[in-house]
Design a protein that fits this description.
single chain, 6 helices, globular, mainly alpha, three-stranded parallel sheet
Length: about 160
């Protein structure tokens, strides 16, 4: 290709707003599953439960590539929190009203270690709503689960045993 840095080049793909919101909600849900968070490489042996309020970890100093550490999501306590964590390598900070999909799932891999402040966690229901409640985002409702009970293998084994 002769001149790839032209203005007319389509570098980004447009995606529906509903699909973006669905992806953000799915990544928030995935950050609460311990197995997915551990699969990304976060050390969580001493963490009592997810979502977490405090973090202790190891940050490696590599010359060109910095590993992604935890993402801290805040609600109303913005300025003090940003100043406190902006100089720690690998730690990123995001406002709950402006959650970025690239920060929630860097590299397209689910399960980033997310630390929520109390005000941000309480504000999630009003921003994204719930299964019964409409959110602030122009009538967006959370998607319903396909199954009530997620243990499909156990259900299938019971059905096979009942047939015999």
């Amino acid at each position: 290709m002769f001149a790839p840095m032209r203005i007319w080049r389509p570098w980004h793909r447009k995606i529906n707003v509903n699909q973006k919101r669905y992806a953000v909600v799915s990544s928030i849900t995935a950050s609460a599953v311990p197995s997915l968070v551990m699969a990304r490489g976060h050390r969580m042996e001493t963490v009592p439960e997810l979502p977490l309020v405090a973090w202790k970890g190891e940050v490696e100093d590599i010359r060109y590539i910095n590993r992604k550490g935890p993402l801290i999501v805040y609600g109303t306590e913005g300025a003090k929190l940003v100043k406190a964590f902006r100089n720690i390598p690998g730690v990123e900070i995001a406002n709950v009203e402006r959650l970025n999909l690239l920060k929630l799932i860097p590299g397209g891999h689910l399960g980033r270690f997310v630390i929520w402040t109390k005000s941000a966690f309480e504000k999630l229901d009003s921003i994204y709503g719930s299964v019964d409640k409409v959110s602030e985002k122009k009538g967006y409702m959370l998607p319903r689960g396909k199954m009530e009970n997620a243990e499909l293998a156990r259900i299938l084994i019971r059905m096979r045993c009942s047939r015999l």
